[in-house]
Design goal:
The structure holds two protein chains of two kinds. Chain A is an alpha+beta fold. Chain A contains eight helices and 21 strands. Helix content of chain A is 19%, strand content 35%. In chain A, a hairpin with a 2-residue loop joins strand 4 and strand 5. The longest helix of chain A is centred in the middle third of the chain and has 17 residues. The chains are: A alpha+beta, B mainly alpha. The interface between A and B is medium-sized, with 28 and 20 residues.
């Protein structure tokens, strides 16, 4: 049971997408890449909006390649809400041929008061909600979301993100979520696919992908490390939450007690510094005992240090001078000083407009 | 004289209405095809549709007259279908008007259809809507303004026909004598008072139609 994508798609203009992917047919698969990496093209190929004899789409053993887009059992939102401007919200929803769950879709996306409005009278977030409801109405075997948050401002994004997270968790259908921002999906993705220049450079469970990614080749995406942590305690006096990682502790700003556990945190490699001894007299709160596993020089003169933190991979990007003066060799016990911990707050428990980044 | 004008006015209005009705059935699918196709033959089709814009109406009228003759293919098949001759008949005028006014209805529609945002077409596809339904149920209502404008232009242009009517319609009162022909007759017989009246009707009708068209297109 899976979605298999195989082949080459080369529209005019020199761009070529070439993949051979097997995606799980459950959970949330996030396709991540910078603009021009081919992630939207990949989604359009799955949807049938682009078709090519050289590109095969197989869903659970059925070949979709010959099906035109309107015959594929998919629900999709495009980068733009793409509501029909001459129809009201209700008219847009009623245009779905087999849309039987009208009331459910309306209440799920909070459209009760907007039904009689034309799209031009809606905010960006409201339009996107209507577009999601329209997609929800169609009975589908697979969901495709193309950058559902990217056209929105920070406030609208903070409102819609929990709704999307909830949708992905409760649909019971596989979701392919395309985005350029890893932080958007770090809490909800079960599977990551990283695209660069039309090629897959990493695919698998989030922690594994971040650990395996060949960073020197993909300087555009500093996925750093994605670590699984457990909520431990909230220190109200300092507004800090303690998160457990193995037998060590990470502290981040804000009260994360209502967050689903385990949580994922993303730590960019450039925000990790290394020390031989636990430092004294520093404002940096987060210091983890780690073991150096390898050192990889990057083309631009820096060094990627691969670290093992209680079985999870962490990464530091340091200068070659630092590497030399600390006389780093694999196997050494080190202390990783973490300048910031990026937490995705876009779960359904988050009310804040921006991802909480804690700087110390 | 006033009866002449009334008969011609009724005839002209009927001709314009029937022609516009037929064009509004024929032109939208043609315009949609022209707007969306990448086929090599499309340019030729587009040129054929546009031909009446540049050709003297008498040229078109001449060829239609030949085709509508009793022994020509069009006239003969019409005769075997209806038992009526096509040349110098109302039906012949309608057919000629459809061809003559086709570009005036098709071109604004093609232009409007070409401007359809691509994401709306994609949205319809992923909603599970088949292309024919998408056209009839979503694209035509979406482009209603262009349809109104194209219809009014076609109507007004049919009212303004002269050369082609002269060639294939002749001057049969109540059958083919439209207002523009009547005006010609009145001027020929030096009846300037009646000519003023007829000309004023044509002028007012055309100005009203064009004002309506541009007004419809102007609104956001």
């Amino acid at each position: 049971m899976s979605l298999s994508l195989k082949g080459r798609f080369a529209p005019t203009g020199g761009f070529e997408l070439k993949v051979d992917l097997e995606l799980p047919s459950s959970g949330v698969t996030s396709v991540i890449g910078v603009s021009g990496s081919g992630k939207s093209t990949l989604l359009r190929l799955i949807a049938g909006l682009n078709r090519s004899p050289g590109f095969q789409v197989m869903m659970d053993g059925r070949d979709w390649s010959a099906l035109p887009a309107h015959r594929r059992p998919i629900s999709m939102t495009l980068q733009q809400p793409a509501l029909f401007p001459h129809l009201t919200v209700a008219g847009n929803l009623r245009a779905v041929p087999d849309g039987s769950r009208f009331d459910e879709a309306v209440s799920r996306f909070g459209l009760e008061d907007l039904l009689e409005r034309k799209p031009a009278a809606l905010s960006g977030g409201q339009q996107q909600r209507a577009a999601l409801a329209r997609a929800y109405l169609k009975p589908a075997a697979l969901w495709l979301l193309d950058e559902p948050l990217s056209a929105l401002d920070a406030m609208a994004r903070a409102r819609l993100a929990p709704m999307l997270g909830e949708l992905c968790r409760t649909l019971g259908k596989p979701v392919i979520y395309v985005t350029h921002a890893l932080s958007e999906v770090v809490q909800i993705a079960d599977h990551l696919v990283i695209l660069e220049a039309g090629r897959v450079i990493g695919a698998g469970p989030p922690g594994k992908v971040a650990a395996e990614l060949d960073h020197p080749l993909s300087p555009m995406i500093d996925t750093g490390a994605i670590l699984a942590v457990e909520f431990d305690a909230y220190d109200e006096a300092h507004d800090l939450s303690a998160l457990r990682i193995g037998n060590q502790t990470l502290r981040v700003r804000g009260n994360l007690s209502p967050a689903p556990s385990p949580l994922r945190v993303q730590i960019p490699a450039r925000d990790v510094a290394l020390a031989l001894e636990p430092p004294l007299g520093t404002s940096i709160l987060n210091c983890l005992a780690v073991t150096l596993t390898s050192l990889d020089p990057t083309p631009d003169g820096a060094v990627f240090a691969e670290l093992d933190c209680g079985g999870q991979a962490l990464r530091a990007r340091i200068t070659r001078l630092s590497s030399d003066s600390l006389e780093l060799v694999p196997g050494m016990a080190l202390h990783a000083l973490i300048k910031s911990v990026a937490l995705d707050v876009r779960g359904d428990w988050a009310q804040r407009p921006k991802p909480a980044t804690t700087n110390y | 004289m006033a009866e002449d004008v009334l008969a011609s006015l009724t005839l002209t209005a009927a001709l314009a209405a029937v022609t516009t009705g037929a064009l509004l059935l024929l032109a939208p699918p043609l315009a949609w095809w022209l707007a969306r196709t990448n086929r090599r033959g499309a340019s030729l089709v587009e040129a054929l549709v546009a031909l009446p814009l540049v050709l003297p109406p008498t040229v078109l009228g001449f060829y239609l007259l030949l085709a509508m003759a009793e022994d020509a293919w069009l006239g003969a098949s019409w005769r075997s279908l209806t038992g009526q001759p096509l040349a110098f008949s109302f039906s012949g005028l309608v057919l000629a008007s459809i061809i003559y006014s086709l570009p005036f209805v098709t071109q604004p529609l093609t232009a409007a259809f070409r401007n359809t945002p691509a994401e709306l077409l994609d949205a319809a596809s992923v909603m599970g809507i088949a292309p024919s339904t998408r056209f009839l149920r979503l694209m035509l209502p979406l482009h209603w303004r262009a349809l109104v404008a194209a219809g009014v232009l076609g109507f007004a242009h049919t009212i303004g026909e002269f050369g082609i009517v002269l060639m294939i319609g002749g001057n049969i009162p109540g059958e083919t004598r439209v207002l523009s022909i009547l005006l010609f007759d009145q001027v020929e017989s030096l009846d300037y008072a009646s000519a003023h009246f007829t000309a004023a009707i044509l002028l007012a009708a055309s100005l009203t139609a064009l004002t309506l068209t541009y007004g419809t297109l102007r609104r956001p």
